[in-house]
Design a protein that fits this description.
Layout (H helix, E strand, L loop, with lengths): L5 H5 L20 E8 L3 E9 L2 E7 L10 E6 L3 E2 L7 E3 L7 E13 L10 H7 L1 E8 L3 E10 L5 E6 L11 H4 L10 H9 L1
Length: 195
């Protein structure tokens, strides 16, 4: 069992939730997912595959395409890599109860690897500065995650880099609400689970 997933497993009863348990061999890669999560508060979960887990952040306002926006991103427990495709309803009484949709997904490139310091993703995470180029279905371009507070729930800022994909007028979280996996919105996913 992957020790990095102990917090994830400790918060869930897999007899009740349909979330993936993980624990299998993770396919190597640099994949990401952004899940829209209608829990106690609507937010977006950014997950980057780093090694054999998805390192995860809750982003209350969701990602922006405007470099002037600094979005709070609260680091949460690591998730199993098979969470990349999770879409459904987490039942009441379970941690994170609510509806989850796959808002965006794709692959990313570590921009810090190309710089003078040549940081790999694990070292960048430890340093508190991650710079990635996303190749998603909704989002592309450079994004930086900068840790601003350590502790049990580290706080970071998610910032769009000023590159050719930056667009201050674009509002993808409001204009593109549907899942890239199923084409459904949150209500449709919740309704199908109720059937």
């Amino acid at each position: 069992m992957n020790d990095k997933l102990d917090r994830y497993h400790g918060k869930r009863d897999f007899g009740k939730t349909g979330e993936p348990k993980g624990g299998g061999q993770a396919e190597p890669g640099r994949r990401f997912v952004i899940q829209k999560h209608d829990a106690s508060r609507l937010h977006y979960d950014l997950r980057l595959q780093i090694g054999d887990v998805l390192v995860s952040w809750a982003v209350p306002k969701g990602p922006s395409t405007d470099p002037r926006d600094k979005r709070l991103a609260i680091q949460t427990e690591d998730h199993p890599v098979d969470y990349l495709d999770f879409e459904g309803v987490i039942p009441e009484g379970e941690y994170g109860a609510g509806t989850v949709l796959v808002w965006d997904k794709g692959e990313y490139r570590n921009l810090r690897a190309d710089k003078e310091d040549g940081k790999n993703m694990a070292d960048a995470l430890d340093d508190g500065l991650i710079e990635v180029w996303l190749e998603g279905e909704k989002l592309t371009g450079g994004y930086a995650l900068k840790r601003i507070r350590a502790g049990d729930k580290p706080q970071w800022l998610l910032i769009k880099m000023d590159d050719e994909a930056a667009d201050a007028r674009r509002r993808p979280t409001s204009t593109e609400p549907k899942s890239v996996k199923s084409g459904r919105d949150l209500d449709e996913i919740a309704g199908q689970e109720d059937d």
